[in-house]
Amino acid sequence: MRAALALLALAVPAACFVSPQRRLAARPLFAEENADFDPNAKVSQLDEVLIQWGIKDDPRVPEECRVDPMTRIKEAGKAGVAAYTLTEFAFWLGSVPLAIALVAYTTGSLPDFATTEGKEAVAGYVFVFINFARVIVPLRIALALALAPWCERNIIEKFFPAKVPDECEV
Questions:
Q1: For the chain, which residues make up each domain, given as ranges?
Q2: What residues contact residue 5 under an 8 Å CB cut-off, 6+ apart?
């Protein structure tokens, strides 16, 4: 079990450097070099799910027509911002203690901050954790967008009701 967790800790940072197209090259800089757009592209069922969750770009949509995930949250209004706040708060509140517990479980103890080896170990753990957090940003944004309607019904409408103008009696 510990070996599997150590392997996972090494695999996550390595996955951060590989693009979804499984190559280490950067995306094209200029629109005329953009070969990602193909309106007749075949998309597998797995790719369709990844596109819907915001993990992968849709090759059938031109680059200039694609919407940034944070723009989608802003377009969802107060409910989108509330949902994003809830998901980020839940992620950071839950993942930091989980990461500390995982380190304690795999190594048998917490690193000693007084020694150089302990500080190096903490730096390695932080590197892995931050890269893992970066990898799952699209999932966190997709979860926030999925929670936006619930936040609208259960938070925004209850605590911030729409102001109805009073009708004047003459």
A1: 2-16+68-159
A2: 102, 105, 106
Q: How far is CA 88 from CA 19, 97, 141, 143, in A?
A: 24, 15, 9, 10
**For the chain, first and last CA: distance in Å?**
77
pTM, two decimal places: 0.61
Residue 56 is encoded by which pair of tokens? 């992968």
Q: Which residues contact 140 (CB under 8 A, 6 or more apart)?
A: 87, 88, 91
Place of tokens 């809830």: 86
Q: Which residue has the tokens 């009708």?
A: 167
Q: Residue 136 has what DSSP assignment?
A: T
- Rounded to whole angstroms, the Cα distance separating 78 from 75 reads 9
pLDDT one-digit tens code per residue, 121-142: 899 999 999 999 998 988 898 8
